Every structure is written in structure tokens, then in C-alpha cells.
Amino acid sequence: MNWDRVEGNWKQFTGKVKEQWGKLTEDDITVIGGKQEQLVGRIQERYGIAKDEAEKQVKTWAGGL
């Protein structure tokens, strides 16, 4: 999926994001605001994983939308 579409419809995707990454808070979701790099950073922070692993998860998730 084209990330611009995710960013443009962020409010519709927030439920799916919370489903996938339950440790993200409402504040995280608000701060991310559809920005891919922000999402990757927050996933890294909350789950204690490397950036490349977080990027892989986001890419896989977005590909399944």
C-alpha cells in the first residue's frame, strides 16, 4: 500500500495500528499522525527492537492493508 494513503487516512487506520501494536498509547497514535518514521520510532521505543526490525514490521503491516 502507498504510505501517502495511510497518512491521508490516518484516523481510519488508528484502530488497525492499535490492533497490531497494542503497546502504543493514544498519545503515541496522535504524535505519529500518519508519519511512517514516527511510527517506526515509537514501535522501536515501546517494544525495544532495532530500527530495521520496526521498519520491517511496518512494511509488512502496510503491505497487508
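[next item in queue]
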Amino acid sequence: MTLQATALMHVDDERVVVTEWRFAPGAETGHHVHTRPYVVVPLTDGTLGIGGSDVTLCAGQAYARPAGVAHNVINTGTNEFRFVEIELKGMLP
């Protein structure tokens, strides 16, 4: 059985969805496709398997991706990994 990452939604309004993700070692999101552009802000340092490659992320170093990105995210490290994901629903003023 696959260990699943946990999601805690903080905001879901007309402009954004803000979700905190927590990954125990070995936990994953499962394969999914983003339907909106999004920004990820790591809350901890760690290594995630994304799209078949291990990527080292550092707390506070945000990155952005466009809609249509398909992948599974797996915590390949030995400690819990957390990040905040901000999905953009539309143009911001």
C-alpha cells in the first residue's frame, strides 16, 4: 500500500487555492495534473522525487509552474517534508 501525502487547505476563494502539503518519508501525492498555474513554497529542506528525478528543495525558495504539469511527488528523503502550494484561479489585479 502506498503512503499518501496529506493536504490541509488554508484558502479557497475566487482568486487562489492555498494548500499545505505534508510528506512523511516515502509518502506521495499520486499521479495528477495541475489545471491551474501554481507556486510552491517549501517550508522545510528536503529531497522530492518529481517526474522520475530527485530534486533538492530548500525552505523559502519558491518556484512556479504552468497549468498542465503532470507528475507524482514522492518524499525520497528521510525526514518529513512540507510545502505550501498556491494555485492561481485567474488574473490578479
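[queue empty]
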